[in-house]
Amino acid sequence: MDITTADRQPKNRVALTINGDRHDLEIHPWVTLLDLLRGPMQLSGTKKGCDHGQCGACTVLIDGERMNSCLKFAVTLDGAEITTIEGLGRPENMHPMQKAFVEHDAYQCGYCTPGQICSAVGLLKEGKAGTREEIREMMSGNLCRCGAYVNIADAIEDVMGQEARCGIREAAE
């Protein structure tokens, strides 16, 4: 299908809340959430790595759950709340996980970092990881070509500890 043929294909209406802002969109049924975010929404923080759900670079939070955005057709998410790395925090007001990644030098080239951070935030919300081994296992869907895994686990443990000290986890349950 060439570009002009694709443009004439019917579009679907979908309402998405992305980083707190509601968007009423008309999109083709084959557009992935990743391509929607990086294209029309101009949110380039979410990275396209393998485009097959194998690397985790495109991980975002969909209704609070971590998911690979390259595997989700945007039209299937009508009414969903999407949080990308841009929605977690900004340099002047970072999310605790973003701060921990900086403090623990949990990145090198940085390409995987947005997906790693979104996945780590989702992991903590799930509340299933209690040990370093569980953290590493549950983060195994997010690959880092630079090998910053030790520092990534350190950052996640740090935020887990902050939550435990502040009683955040107990209050959320």
**First-to-last CA distance:** 49 Å
Oligomer: single chain
Query: Per CATH, what is the topology of the largest domain?
Result: Ubiquitin-like (UB roll)
Low-confidence stretches: 169-173
Share of residues in strands: 5-15%
How many domain modules? 2
CATH homology-level superfamily of the largest domain: Beta-grasp domain
What is the count of β-strands? 5
| Elements, N to C (H/E) | HEEHEEEHHHHHH
Question: Which shape, going by the Cα principal axes?
Answer: elongated
Going by helix content, strand content and strand pairing, the class is: alpha+beta
Strand order in the largest sheet: 2-1-5-3-4
Estimated radius of gyration: 17 Å
Largest sheet: 5 strands, mixed
CATH A-level architecture of the largest domain: Roll
Tally of DSSP helical segments: 8
Average pLDDT reading: 93
As a percent range, the share of helical residues equals: 25-40%
CATH top level of the largest domain?
A: Alpha Beta
Keywords: Iron, Metal-binding, Oxidoreductase
Organism: Pseudorhizobium tarimense
Pfam families: Fer2, Fer2_2
InterPro entries: 2Fe-2S-bd, 2Fe-2S-bd_dom_sf, 2Fe-2S_ferredoxin-like_sf, 2Fe-2S_ferredoxin-type, 2Fe2S_fd_BS, Aldehyde_Oxdr_Iron-Sulfur, Beta-grasp_dom_sf
